């Protein structure tokens, strides 16, 4: 498990390290606009499976996906004009939107409000499976020391941890199901359900 520190001076170097891990099917832990999170190439089943094993998460619970734009989102899900207008209102931001997959079922997508992750997505060119970097049932990590301590003694560990320092105690993203006629709030987080519904109604 490699640990590298991120600061303003070495951002490009850190991006290269994360990209190297992702391109070889590995997983990285990076700071996000909410908490520290696992990321892996969404198209690489081995990388995604490794997150499930480390996190001890039931396989039926799909991971949300990071995208850098609506065009990237459209490679995974169907987006109507109204849904697209809504996404423009809440992205980048702390709103995860559940939409109909272009293959089958549904997927939860988010465009994070974080310059480092957006640049990572742009350089990688593909969506990233993501989830909070913690064992299922335990609290997510905003403090880097606690995160490292949780995983350093595990046999199966992330390939890379990006130490961005402590990132504050931020609420999780709000999760909203957009597959029905009106949005359904599945988890109220950083953005209130009332704001979500108001934005949707204004797009009629």
Task: Describe the 3D structure.
The protein has a domain of 125 residues: DHBP synthase. It has seven helices and ten strands. A hairpin with a 4-residue loop joins strand 2 and strand 3. The longest helix is centred in the N-terminal third of the chain and has 13 residues.
Number of strands: 10
Distance between the termini: 50 Å
CATH hierarchy: architecture of the domain at 2-68 and 111-168: Alpha-Beta Complex
Q: Can you give the mean pLDDT?
A: 95
- Placed side by side, the strands forming the largest sheet appear as 1-8-2-3-7-4-6-5-9-10
Largest sheet: 10 strands, mixed
Order of helices and strands: EHEEHEHHEEHEHEEEH
The outline comes out as globular
The total count of helices amounts to 7
- The proportion of residues in beta strands is 15-25%
Please name the fourth-level CATH homologous superfamily of the domain at 2-68 and 111-168.
Answer: DHBP synthase
Low-confidence stretches: none
Helix percentage: 25-40%
Q: Quickly give the structural class.
A: alpha/beta
CATH C-level name of the domain at 2-68 and 111-168: Alpha Beta
CATH topology of the domain at 2-68 and 111-168: DHBP synthase
What Rg is obtained from the alpha carbons, in whole angstroms?
17 Å
């Amino acid at each position: 498990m490699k640990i590298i520190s991120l600061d303003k001076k070495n951002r490009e170097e850190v991006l290269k390290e994360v990209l190297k891990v992702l391109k070889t099917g590995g997983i990285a832990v990076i700071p996000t606009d909410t908490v520290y999170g696992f990321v892996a190439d969404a198209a690489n089943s081995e990388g995604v499976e490794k997150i499930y094993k480390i996190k001890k998460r039931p396989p039926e619970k799909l991971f949300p996906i990071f995208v850098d734009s609506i065009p990237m989102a459209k490679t995974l899900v169907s987006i109507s004009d109204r849904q697209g207008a809504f996404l423009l209102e809440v992205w980048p931001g702390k709103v995860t939107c559940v939409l109909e997959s272009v293959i089958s079922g549904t997927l939860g997508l988010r465009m994070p409000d974080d310059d480092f992750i957006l640049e990572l997505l742009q350089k990688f060119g593909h969506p990233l499976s993501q989830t909070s970097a913690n064992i299922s049932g335990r609290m997510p990590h905003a403090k880097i020391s606690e995160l490292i301590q949780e995983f350093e003694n595990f046999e199966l560990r992330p390939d890379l941890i990006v130490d961005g320092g402590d990132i504050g105690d931020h609420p999780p993203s709000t999760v909203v199901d957009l597959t029905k006629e009106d949005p359904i709030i599945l988890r109220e987080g950083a953005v209130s359900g009332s704001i979500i519904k108001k934005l949707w109604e204004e797009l009629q």
